Records
---
Amino acid sequence: MLLISDLDETRSIDPEECLALANEYIRENSVDAIWENSWILRALANNRTFLLERYHERLKSYWSGDEKDKFQPQSLELARGNQFYIRSNIWMPLDAASRTLEFEQKLFAYNIPHDHNFQLLTVGYYGPGYPTEIYEYDSDCVTGEIGEKVDLSDKVDTILTPGRMIFYRQNKDIHIQHTPPEMSVSLNLSVADTNTDLLPQYIFDVDEHAIVGGAGDLHSNRLFLLDLFRTINDANTVEILSDFVRHFDCTRTRVTAFQVLQDIEPDACIPLLAKTDIGSIPYLSKQLARGNTAREYSRF
Ligand SMILES: [Fe+2]
């Protein structure tokens, strides 16, 4: 069931207090633990003064050359700890006639059905808020191949109005953000899960109920980089890829490394098939049976 609420909360806190309370009350990275304590982010949204000050500081840091935040300019880090981080996001209405429309749509990820590979609790803070469509899917039932069909729940439409909270659960909720009618700001509390780098994040076609690509996450980027070695490689590449096949924690990355090896040094695959479990990984064994070495996993 989708998690959307208009919680009544009167406390008002700043980002550092928000982070401290998250550390104190959210004792595990679970949907229940986060949702039960969602009042913490709601209380931050009651603080109507801190955000403008933070944006002033950011503007001044651009001037002084101190700006080190490498995230997209629409997103500002407010507090960060080992387990959680808090960010604000600006959502701009787009001018359909703008020459930079395509760039801006990508920047704001408007109209792109995607999931997140981390738990993301968000609250509307300012402006009318972005409209969003949300679906649920079961990531345990997908392998991540492009064109793979995915069972989606019925669509829910909502708007991230001020004070409304939406929980985009890790690899469970797919959402499409649409352009808000006026500039809007949201606040996010996200889990800094070390496992995130091993999890995919997908782009979907919700009309076709299918995966159409990876969402530019570290997982997709890693697969993207592995493809480079099909063209540029030396003996060291073979060693590194073989190590990935033997030891890396992410199955899809291991499979892709193996597929690249099949193209550039097929002899190196023989001991890997004999001494590791790589040949029995379901999506690879299907491909081996077809004699196909091309990567079929999602890419952005
Ligand atoms: Fe999103």
---
Amino acid sequence: MQLLDIRNLTIELRTSDTVIRAVDKVNLSLKEGEVHALVGESGSGKSLIAKAIVGVLNKRWHITADRMHWRGVDLMRLSNEQRRKIVGSDIAMIYQDPSRCLDPTAKIFEQIAETLPEMTGSGFFLKRNRERKDRVKALIHKVGIKDHEKVLSSYPHELSEGVCQKVMIAMAIARTPKLLIADEPTTALESTTRAQVFRLLKSLNQLKNMSILMISHELEEIVNWSHGIHVLYCGQMVEAGPTQRIFTQPRHPYTQALLKSLPDYEQGLAHKEPFYALKGTIPTLQHLPIGCRLGPRCPKAQKACVVTPPLTKLHGHSYACHFPLIKAMK
Ligand SMILES: Nc1ncnc2c1ncn2[C@@H]1O[C@H](COP(=O)(O)OP(=O)(O)O)[C@@H](O)[C@H]1O
Ligand code: SF4
Ligand SMILES: [Mg+2]
């Protein structure tokens, strides 16, 4: 079943004299039980898309879409209250900036306990309270927090960014949502905990059939267990399709550069080499190139690229480039 189906999502920042299109006609769909990766350099618009899906962008952003279907219901046509209800029960998000998303005035225990689903059954208050504590404890052990007494009785500002990130993950998975949007969920974590979090998310997908939209600028952690990859550059979806196909037959020069920055992509490349294949950096929204936004950095750019390339679709694989790569990668 199609869980999420987004067509031509556009997100603009409108000021008194300009309109800046931060996300430009993006398509994204995901079926029940699937894991999809949304990748692209910092500043591509990944977090904006995630926030638009859960409906938490503030009013400065103007959002339009031909459709934003959640299990067949168009979220764009719902009232805020109806939308909050759906999103609250079915979709959870791990925010990129956990310390800013946690409530600074409440202790961690209360914040996690609030996200737990209502307990069914009867029982004495004390017994229910005990059960609640046990469930919170079990949740934070799951995300790799061992020192639960100290963490649960702390306020967010008393904890490191890494621990806050784990707390955020615990809160997001507490209700076993149908869709988990994980926005760079492991950036503040050390490598062993990162691996543990990825294992946890993978098992939630496999055992609970939880769909995951994994946002990352790194592919290596998710490539082995994601069904699809969506590559975003500067607010435009440059390529999307089944993971294996994108990996073996990328058509867009930007995807190729991303893949080349992975470890072991080519023999002898032991470590990640960030974007050695592309010079320059992603432009700011105020200085977007016309036509294909990769133009100034693209080794294959030609005159025609000043016109925005159309999206070519081929067996579930789509890409937007006037001069796509032909050869399959090894
Ligand atoms: N609150 C904001 N005000 C102005 N520009 C913003 C704001 N948030 C994001 N942007 C801009 O929107 C673009 C996309 O940002 P974002 O979605 O955070 O990218 P990503 O998550 O891929 O790193 C960037 O150019 C960023 O500078
Ligand atoms: S359209 Fe042109 S500039 Fe854009 S990726 Fe393709 S070749 Fe490069
Ligand atoms: Mg982001």
